Amino acid sequence: MPDTMQMVTQRGYNGVDLDGTVILGWQDKHAVLTQAKNCSAPNCVLVEGEKGTLMVQSSPGRVQNLRFVPLKGDMIGKTEKDLSADIGIIQDENHMVYEVMEFARIMEENDESAYREAMAQTLRVMDILDILDPRPGAEVCRQTA
Predict the structure, then answer these.
(1) Sign of CA dihedral 104, 108, 111, 116
(2) End-to-end CA distance of the chain, in Å?
(3) CA distance 84 to 86
(4) What pLDDT does residue 135 have?
């Protein structure tokens, strides 16, 4: 779990979130997540790490348009060279196909370990969302195993 969590949202007349920004903090890093249903900007995801940045130029569930941009280091007085590389893979048009295939595999193989891992991840996300949005009625009903 993050050490600190903050959220700012804008809600529509019906209480549904239109956009929001979440900042998750750990001792040595932080993540900023922004989403908006009320804009027409292109979808993208940026993940910056110690060796460079991953850029996903599509909806977050797709890795077809994935580019790796290595760290440039000190660029003062130097000519910039494009060392980035396309590392995406061709995917089915409906990216949910892969999640459904994995769910089917887990059930067919009775893969208890993968089931527990997926459930634990889902519950961690739900715990974070419950902390970020403590409004009455915002809790998600959940069944624990």
Answers:
(1) positive
(2) 20
(3) 7
(4) 63
Q: How far apart are CA 106 and CA 102, in angstroms?
A: 6
When computed from its CA atoms, the radius of gyration of the chain, rounded to whole angstroms, is 19
The 3-class SS string of the chain reads: CCCEEEEEEEECCCCCEEEEEEEEEECCEEEEEEEECCCCCCCCEEEECCCEEEEECCCCCCCCCEEEEECCCCCCCCCCCCCCEECCCCCCCCCHHHHHHHHHHHHHCCCHHHHHHHHHHHHHHHHHHHHHCCCCCCCCCCCCC
Residue 118 — pLDDT band, cuts 50, 70, 90? very high
Write out the two tokens for 10. 């804008």
Nearest alpha-carbon partner for 124 in 136, 102, 111, 142: 142
Distance in angstroms (rounded) separating the CA atoms of residues 34 and 19: 8
Q: At what angle do helices 96-108 and 112-132 cross, to 10 degrees?
A: 130
**C-alpha span between 120 and 107 (Å, rounded):** 17
Tell me, yes or no, if the pTM score tops 0.70: no
**Rounded CA gap, 80 and 102, in Å?**
42
